[in-house]
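Continuing the batch. This is chain 6 of the set; chains 1 through 5 are on the previous pages. Same settings as before, nothing changed between runs. Recording input and output for traceability.
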Amino acid sequence: MRRIEFDTIAREVESLCIAACYELNDDVLGAIEQAARRESNPTAAGILKSMVENAHVASEQRIPLCQDTGLTVVFVEQGADVAVKPPADRRGATLADAVNAGVASGYEKGFLRKSIVGDPLNGRKNTGSNTPAVMHLTVVPGDKLKLTVMAKGGGCENKSQFKMFKPTADREEIIAWVVEAVRTAGADACPPFVVGVGIGGDFELSCLLSKKALLRKLSESNGDAFYAAIESDLLSKINALGLGPQGLGGDTTALAVMIETAPCHIASLPVAVNIECHSHRHKTAVI
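Output for chain 6:
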């Protein structure tokens, strides 16, 4: 059994939080640059070029890409042969404790806006640390710990949707609903979007799949040709909406659409859409 120090995990999460909020991944930045080059609407092209410039300034000056530095979502793949070694003064501390310690430290050291309220309805008082993070844990073979931090802004998250379809629903019905979900997101969710779609599982799993889909490289299609074709059709139909960058019109409403699937009950067909804005911020490390 490999034991990883609590502080090692916390430091890695701290670093990922700061990097995610300061630096767009190359695939995202490249997609925006490509969209700017092919955009036929001059206003939209100018907005896209400004997004590219903003990304370069944020990275070079070590400042946040966006003032909304998001709710911290952490995907963890924990090897079955890995355990957390807590510090002497925190016996019983868990992996979740290490992740939250790293988030709190990262948001403090990175001068990132803290946006989490401790109670959703009663008082809505800010926790002052951007914790607790939302953590999704998967146990996998091996002795490694994979951490992926996503900074998920409130504006785009608020426009995500879920629907339980009848199991007789066909491909075109699903496509039409996803396109409408993106259309209603509009300018409020800061296009151009990255659109994650989860199909199958159950109520909660479909929503998780839609967010997990956002972690793929934008250039990577679904490994199943059937779903890869749906991704392509969705991207074309979404861009045909003409919402454009920041909702001001243009050819580029979405940079990518990515679908993840899971088996489901014979009586069910859950579908979820998770909207991500152009400032698509996530970083990964393996310990």
